[in-house]
Amino acid sequence: MRDPILVLGKYEIVEAIGSGGMATVYRGKVAGPMGFEKPVAVKVLQEDVAADEEIVRMFIDEARLGARLSHPNVANVLDFGEAGGRYYMAMEYVDGVSLAGLLKHLGKGRKPKPLEPAVAVHVAACVLRGLAYAHGVNGPDGRALGIVHRDVSPQNVLLDRSGTVKLCDFGIATGSYRIEKTRVGVIKGKAGYMSPEQASGGKVDARSDLYSLALSIVAMLSGGPAYDGKDTTEVRGKAAKGLGNERIEALACDVALKEVLRRALAAKPADRFATASEFLSALLAAAPDPAEAGRNALAALLEKVPDSAARTGSPYRKKGGAPAAKDATAARSDAVPTTGLRNLLIVAGVAVLAALVLALLGVGMPSP
What we know:
It contains 12 helices and 9 strands. By secondary structure, the protein is α+β, with helices and mostly antiparallel strands. The chain has 2 domains: 6-92, Phosphorylase Kinase, domain 1; 96-312, Transferase(Phosphotransferase), domain 1 (Orthogonal Bundle), CATH 1.10.510. Strand 5 (77-83) and strand 6 (86-92) form a beta hairpin. The model is unreliable at 312-345 (pLDDT under 50).
């Protein structure tokens, strides 16, 4: 890893890999004696929102929930702290790309390129295992926390290069564990992956997460979002009505898989799968994969994805890239030259090379 650009407690930060409205995520490491070193992802609350008590409570809620979640298909939170007035949480580092980043990379400069059904089923099955676990987590008193992710989407599904799949970012999840309660009528989540009840501002439960996952399966099998639209309002309006059957019929997959999607995408929650486990059983019955061909195909696919796509495909990155990091304890201004300086050096080098070539040919440089 490169030298750190930022230090937060025991974590050395190497580079920003994504940013959202509240926080920036960095790739970093934690070092120990005798050369011990472990990569981590560090999510840092942005300074311009750190004074907002509501946002701070949301960030703390996310960390508290993350401390309770431990599952192979959920990105684990390792630590939470504060340094130099900045709140942060350390999470396991997933060496790969988000599902959104993979779809974007595959369709770059061309028409949307869908994933093979086996790959889509593998990814969905892993997410369903993570959701089944999260939906069933109990609190210290033994009572169910009633967790609903509310933001299941390709942006929040991380794909490790080994073929492992992890659901991440419980930042807007709801449940009895929360200090900060969502106000009635406030809609949170990505419009293109909302259930009809979520898009309408209604009450949501675990079945809403299952609907969102089904929309993610549609995105995988078609290479792009289930809904199109010019803005969030238009997309949310379509989401509130639910996905039409013609969209499912157009997918390039077996009839059995389409039948599973029809049920998962039923407009009324009562007509959907009741639990993630029930959805998972139906999915694997429709598209069995005992040899794990889906996982192997995903790993082979990710081998061809460059690291740059992994960064721009981060679930936390917004258009325009991550903001520059401000050091909490030890800034490094000399780590990388600025773009302007690099360009100046390139121009100067070209000019010197041209002068040498002309001198060898006996031709003088033109006067300014």
